[in-house]
């Protein structure tokens, strides 16, 4: 067990970036990500569940869903392994965040606020051999931006290979910390900026309550089981093994994740029918949680 939590576990990611009491961490990370493009003063966390628009539709559960002081919407997702149609899922998520802005009545003039999708990937996508991919709506011939209402940033962390002493910007320091946090014995950079000192306190395993430690241990076990399955398949170089390992790890991890999400929303008083629509679990399963 490392001194600091693993940010690529469900628990670790939400503890660092998804809590109101620690929101200055997410604000600083987004400001460094979008440096000279958007300056965020404050954010408000939103309900991460978007209910189906019709009975036949499926709901959406974001990892983190928030809005900044200028009206911009942010969907922040963490992904540990490749999934079929992942790019399509990203587009669908942002499309739902856009359509969610619609107002009833004919007086609404389609005045949309921009939606940002930030995807932290703990694997290489394979489409581009680079760390950061920025996606915008632009004219095909000129490259000029057509609209700023939808924006995507994909960060493939395995491509980021700088060591601590080589990091030149606060954004690079953020990336180094996210990649190496669970193996660090001390938190570098904390003297450079107050937000890194805050990160030290938030990510310290010793600061967890007994209940939080139990949740983290379970999340860490799921993460390690999944990564071990994938690593073993890759070492063997057997394509079939990779596919089976991915499917098994994703299925088991997703099932546990959905039960955990359902239990949390049940505690918040959300109706069982709504939780069932968004998680795919049955009402009976949710009632037993």
Description of the molecule:
- The structure is a single chain.
- The protein has 289 residues and is α/β, with parallel strands linked by helices.
- The protein has a domain at 210-289.
- The protein has nine helices and eight strands.
- Helix 6 (210-236) runs antiparallel to helix 7 and helix 7 packs antiparallel against helix 8.
- It is globular.
- The model has no long low-confidence stretch (mean pLDDT 86).
At a glance:
This protein has helices spanning about 10-15, 25-35, 85-100, 170-180, 195-205, 210-235, 240-265, 270-280, 285, and strands spanning about 45, 50, 60, 65-70, 75-80, 115-120, 130-140, 145-155.
SSE blueprint:
Blueprint: H1 10-17, H2 23-33, E1 43-45, E2 49-50, E3 60-61, E4 64-68, E5 73-79, H3 86-99, E6 115-121, E7 132-138, E8 145-156, H4 170-180, H5 194-203, H6 210-236, H7 239-267, H8 272-279, H9 283-287
Parallel strand pairs: 5-6, 6-8
Antiparallel strand pairs: 1-4, 2-3, 4-5, 7-8
Helix pairs in contact: 6-7, 7-8
């Amino acid at each position: 067990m490392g001194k600091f939590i693993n940010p690529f576990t469900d628990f670790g990611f939400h503890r660092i970036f998804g809590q109101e009491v620690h929101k200055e961490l997410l604000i600083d990370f987004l400001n460094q990500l979008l440096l000279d493009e958007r300056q965020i003063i404050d954010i408000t966390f939103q309900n991460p569940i978007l209910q189906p628009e019709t009975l036949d539709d499926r709901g959406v559960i974001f990892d983190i869903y928030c809005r900044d002081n200028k009206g911009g919407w942010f969907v922040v997702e963490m992904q540990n392994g490749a999934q079929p149609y992942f790019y399509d899922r990203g587009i669908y998520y942002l499309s739902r965040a856009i359509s969610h802005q619609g107002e009833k009545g004919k007086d609404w003039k389609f005045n949309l606020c921009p939606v940002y999708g930030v995807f932290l990937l703990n694997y290489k996508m394979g489409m581009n051999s680079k760390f950061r991919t920025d996606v915008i709506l632009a004219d095909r011939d000129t490259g000029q931006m057509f609209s700023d209402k939808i924006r995507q940033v994909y960060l493939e962390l395995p491509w980021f290979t700088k060591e601590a002493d080589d990091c030149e910007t606060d954004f690079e320091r953020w990336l180094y910390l996210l990649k190496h946090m669970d193996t660090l014995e001390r938190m570098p950079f904390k003297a450079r900026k107050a937000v890194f000192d805050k990160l030290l306190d938030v990510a310290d395993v010793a600061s967890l309550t007994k209940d939080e430690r139990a949740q983290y241990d379970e999340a860490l076990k799921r993460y390690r089981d999944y990564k071990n399955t994938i690593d073993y398949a890759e070492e063997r170089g057997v394509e079939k093994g990779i596919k089976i390992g991915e499917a098994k790890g994703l299925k088991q991890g997703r099932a546990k994740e959905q039960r955990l999400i359902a239990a949390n929303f049940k505690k918040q008083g959300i109706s069982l029918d709504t939780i069932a629509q968004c998680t795919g679990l049955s009402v009976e399963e949710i009632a037993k949680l």
